[in-house]
Fold this sequence. Notes:
- The structure is a homodimer.
- Chain A is α+β, with helices and mostly antiparallel strands.
- Helices cover 29% and strands 29% of the residues of chain A.
- In chain A, strands 9, 10, 11, 12, 13, 14, 15, 17 and 19 form a 9-stranded antiparallel β-sheet that branches. The first copy, chain A, has a 4-stranded parallel β-sheet with strand order 3-2-1-4, with helices on both faces.
- In chain A, a hairpin with a 2-residue loop joins β11 (203-208) and β12 (211-217).
- In chain A, α1 (12-21) packs across α10 (282-290) and α2 (53-60) packs parallel to α3.
- At the A-B interface, α11 and β17 of A face α11 and β17 of B.
Amino acid sequence: MEQTLGIIGGGQLGRMLALAAIPLGFKVSVLDPTPNCPASVCALQTLGSFKDAAAIKQFASQQDFLTFEIESANAQALLSLQQDGKNLNPQPQMLALIKDKFAQKIFYQQHAIPCAQSYKVDSKNEIVRAADKIGYPFLLKARFDAYDGRGNALVRSAADIDDAMAKLGANNLYVEQFVPFVKELAVIVARDSQNNIRSYPVVETIHENNICHTVLCPAPISVEQSEQATQFAEQLVSHLEGAGVFAVEMFLSAQGEIIVNEVAPRVHNSGHHTLEANVTSQFEQHVRAVTGLPLGDPSLKVPAAVMMNILGERAGDANIEGLDAALAIDGVSVHFYGKAQTKLERKMGHITVVASDLATAQANALQAKKLLKI
Amino acid sequence: MEQTLGIIGGGQLGRMLALAAIPLGFKVSVLDPTPNCPASVCALQTLGSFKDAAAIKQFASQQDFLTFEIESANAQALLSLQQDGKNLNPQPQMLALIKDKFAQKIFYQQHAIPCAQSYKVDSKNEIVRAADKIGYPFLLKARFDAYDGRGNALVRSAADIDDAMAKLGANNLYVEQFVPFVKELAVIVARDSQNNIRSYPVVETIHENNICHTVLCPAPISVEQSEQATQFAEQLVSHLEGAGVFAVEMFLSAQGEIIVNEVAPRVHNSGHHTLEANVTSQFEQHVRAVTGLPLGDPSLKVPAAVMMNILGERAGDANIEGLDAALAIDGVSVHFYGKAQTKLERKMGHITVVASDLATAQANALQAKKLLKI
Lengths: 374, 374
């Protein structure tokens, strides 16, 4: 009898999880509200919202193992499944923490993990008082529903506060120290059901308009910085609960300090290159972890890899162009997500390039990316 | 608009082709007579026989690109599709050649490719006369429908001839010189639609009961032998037609000579390790070739890889055991084929192990194989 793995959410992450779970012998299903969602070509899709408690419960009843690819899934429904004894991983308790960016900062402070100073603010007065403590510029941020840069405003002086509040709404805000970073880093950390932890090599992530554009692996930083980033990431994940893959995002300051920014309890854009570059991909690793299997080797099998996202450049029907030219470059792998509609800056796919050094991988990835349109 | 790729045959080869085609943006379908065939979890299955000309024609009408994973597909139907201008690769003309093992030998001789001396025989008298030329022992072989060792009989002396004929039937036989080989080798050769050729590193294949059990990559042979094997394989494929991946199987004789045994016009068991070990897997390579895309880099990204087949050891419902213990060994990847029923020596899946040297890979693969049951 095949064992069943249910994934709440069937976007590109669910698609790549399903592609990794099939060879391991699992029958994969996804719960997703969009007909023909990206994962539907390699998983049975149940049409339904991952916010809908009844839909989640019904879906879960058919699964031996359950996980999620989206942290906005209905946390209450997931908690109730867990209380019913479902094999659900990672643990949904932490979703409340993950969803509240301010609570995350407090959590890091409590566990002595370096992060940007942050203050909860409920009014303009409180914003001004927080500014007195941390100085300008600072970031005004929404505590909830903030991703891909939505929910952030840079406040350069007191004169910017009104505009920032207008942009973000007056409620559920916090003030965060502005860290003038020289690099953004990320570490994928995996934990199995026996609490064994294995981490992937540190990567540098490069964002534009707050959207991840490029991942460099290994990150061009010192060995000490790399060890420290790994240590902070593992320390953070050790305080979270459940089996699975977690992505920890960090800043490297001009002074060489590493500061944790945030964590996602799932496979992550900063780990897509692991499909080609690492012995065990983040997707297989997550499947192993949430199904009670042991973790695989996360180490690199190539000297260097670069990932670049293929982002939509217009709105309309998706239409792949330039694939032949891009694939003519050695070391290029292309992953499309099967989205029927393209949109400005929508994640439509990604390119990974492996090479004998980072400069070659980056040059080839950039060339491939320029050739590809969707 | 997604382009469609149709595969005639939906067994494990179709399954792994589909898994490789999905990230490249293709909508994949398979034609296969078995409900819930291995590829059905990642491709749209049309239920139908690959011997049925009408089913093939109907299936083909829905595909932008068409290929096959099984050389016993109806060659006449494929030829007729080709005449209708379908994008079908590789070219079906050669299927007549591939299906006739004696014709293959003549073909090699015509193109000066070293192979075992062979004689067509229509009677016991002709067998005896052939034996006079090549001596005992020799092989009596069926020209058609011979695979995984079926259709071969070793004739040690004239006294064995009657038994061998009884085993193989009296018709369509040929006599083949017995080559006392020290190793069996294989080379996967890919050709794109522009006739560019790229070859994978030579592997050693180890058969038991004429079924592939183990693949060692790279083959533990000399550089000269490896170059010669590659040269013969490319020479052979250059005389075949169409784009795709071809597997050339060879013997290394005790004298160090390389002798071509046979060719398969498709992805092959001797290339399964390329999923983990090579920059471009044989499956992605075949998809690229048959869809008019350029070939990828076939080179290794690990020092060594070993593949072992997971063969059924009993008859009955498939039931995976020992997966957790097998995956606890570093470098182990497991691929199940999703077959509901196991049978003695049926190919149910395979293990690939990557490592820093062949001995480690082989030891780890053997250990994993002993732990896994299905």
